[in-house]
TrEMBL record:
Record flagged with keyword Transferase: yes
Biased composition (Basic and acidic residues): 448-457
This protein's UniProt keywords: ATP-binding, Cell membrane, Kinase, Membrane, Nucleotide-binding, Phosphoprotein, Transferase, Transmembrane, Transmembrane helix, Transport, Two-component regulatory system
Protein name: histidine kinase
Database matches in Pfam families: HATPase_c (PF02518), HisKA (PF00512), PAS (PF00989), PhoR (PF11808)
InterPro entries on file: BphY/WalK/GraS-like (IPR050351), HATPase_C_sf (IPR036890), HATPase_dom (IPR003594), His_kinase_dom (IPR005467), HisK_dim/P_dom (IPR003661), HisK_dim/P_sf (IPR036097), PAS-like_dom_sf (IPR035965), PAS_fold (IPR013767)
Gene Ontology MF: a single term: phosphoprotein phosphatase activity
Biased composition (Low complexity): 437-447
Species name: mine drainage metagenome
Region (Disordered): 437-457
Catalysed conversion reaction: ATP + protein L-histidine = ADP + protein N-phospho-L-histidine
Length: 457
């Protein structure tokens, strides 16, 4: 403001001085002409400066700010400063928008933005995978035209978005179950959120099956015991008959106890996040003990053979013993009398790669059909339910084996042919092996060949 006043005062003084001097010498008319000329020059200079400023304001840039004097220079300075502030704010907002879009892209849920006409404004890659969309090609297309699903069409038409919609679709890796939720916002716009709940549904189905199986497994022996108790109270039995009934009740009680023990073991293996306390186990002694248990369970009805290379295994003794015992007891139970069960521990040194060890249990039993093998380690899965119950199995043995081996970074392999028998092999990595003999420090020279020969029982 002060610069404007000084400029006006300067122009007035210049006009008065010029007009006064000319009027002193030439009279009033030339003085008036001089004053007008000075005014026209000032107006012309201001007009030129104004035109330069207007031209710059149409396409303002920092590198082509026009030169000016006086008030126009002040105005250009202030305009350029506001331009820099505006560009800084725009860049900041664009960066925030970019990071927001990146966050939506990284979301595990699908996100679709729709306008008031249900046309797609934007979608992330997860939503594109859920609904088979192209994030660029399908923009400005109606969602109901692209997501061809009768349930979704009815959901959008009803406009009741309080509850999510569960809809099934065929994805790239198989059928999907999607939870779709519409959230209205703004002036009729909509936010569509999609979530893949396929695994949640599978887990819930497994939970229902697990509860149903446990209830059935416990209910059956309880029903038998309750019937015997009622019979003992209502009827008179001889001593032999009473002893027989009590024996049957004891069998059912043992069955429930084994089931509860296996459930507790499985719950511990699945729910304990900590690595088990490890110790060195002599596998020759382990194989000999497993063979002795197999002979006791077989009661002379099978040929039990065992062989073991020298060396030890590091791991949780309780968990690995439980896993190995389950494999051995299954082999004995499902092998007809006169068959053979072989227990083997081998330390292998391949030509390529690190050494590894393999514990295997082979039998000449009834075998398993190929379609059943992938599901053998599921809880309560039985190939033959009647035979499994007759043999005293709970249906949890191989599930316990799987989880115990997973905690020891080992791999279970199953090969079987119906009518010829089965082989269950467990492969342990080098990190789990202790090839030194008891009393020999790890890393000491290898024992003589004779000390590493297999033993047979």
């Amino acid at each position: 403001m002060r610069a404007v006043i000084f400029r006006l005062m300067g122009v007035i003084v210049l006009m008065l001085v010029g007009a006064g001097l000319v009027g002193w010498w030439f009279g009033p008319l030339p003085a008036a002409l001089v004053a007008c000329a000075v005014a026209l020059v000032v107006i012309g200079v201001d007009t030129a400066a104004q035109l330069r400023v207007l031209a710059w304001l149409k396409w303002p840039r920092h590198d082509n700010i026009p030169t000016a004097r006086g008030v126009w220079a002040e105005m250009l300075y202030r305009a350029a400063r506001q331009l820099r502030l505006w560009e800084t704010r725009v860049a900041h907002e664009e960066d925030k928008l970019k990071r927001f879009i990146e966050a939506l892209q990284a979301s595990p849920n699908g996100v679709i933005l729709m306008d008031a006409s249900d046309q797609i404004d934007w979608c992330n890659d997860t939503a594109a995978a859920h609904f088979g969309l192209d994030p660029k090609r399908d923009l400005r297309q109606h969602a109901v035209h692209l997501i061809r699903n009768p349930e979704f069409f009815a959901y959008m038409g009803a406009k009741r978005f309080d509850e999510p919609l569960l809809m099934r679709r065929n994805g790239s890796y198989g059928p999907l179950l999607l939870s779709v939720q519409i959230i209205p916002y703004g002036e009729g716009e909509k936010l569509l959120l999609s979530r893949d709940v396929t695994q949640v549904e599978r887990t819930e189905a497994m939970r229902r099956d697990f509860v149903a199986n446990v209830s059935h497994e416990i209910k059956t022996p309880l029903t038998v015991i309750a019937g015997f108790v009622e019979s003992l109270r209502a009827l008179e039995f001889s001593i032999e008959e009473r002893d027989h009934i009590l024996g049957l009740m004891q069998e059912q009680s043992d069955r429930m106890r084994h089931l509860v023990d296996d459930l507790l073991t499985l719950a511990h293996l699945e729910g304990d996040p900590h690595q088990p306390a490890e110790e060195r186990m002599d596998m020759r002694q382990m194989v000999e003990r497993l063979a002795a248990d197999a002979r006791a369970l077989s009661a002379g009805r099978h040929r039990i053979k065992a062989s073991a290379d020298a060396g030890g295994l590091r791991g949780a003794r309780t968990e690995l013993t439980s896993a190995f015992s389950n494999l051995v007891s299954n082999a004995v139970r499902y092998t007809p009398p006169g068959g053979e069960v072989r227990i083997t521990w081998r330390v292998l040194h391949p030509d390529y790669g690190d050494p590894y060890a393999e514990f295997s249990v082979s039998d000449t039993g009834i075998g398993i059909a190929p379609e059943h093998i992938p599901r053998l380690t599921e809880r309560f899965y039985r190939v033959d339910r009647g035979r499994s119950r007759e043999s005293g199995g709970t249906g949890l043995g191989l599930a316990i084996v799987k989880h115990a081996l997973l905690r020891h970074q080992s791999e279970l392999r199953i090969s079987s042919q119906p009518g010829l028998g089965s082989t269950f092999s467990v492969r342990f990595p080098l990190a789990r092996l202790d090839l030194a003999k008891p009393g020999q420090a790890a890393g000491a020279p290898d024992a003589p060949r004779a000390d590493r020969e297999s033993i047979s029982a």
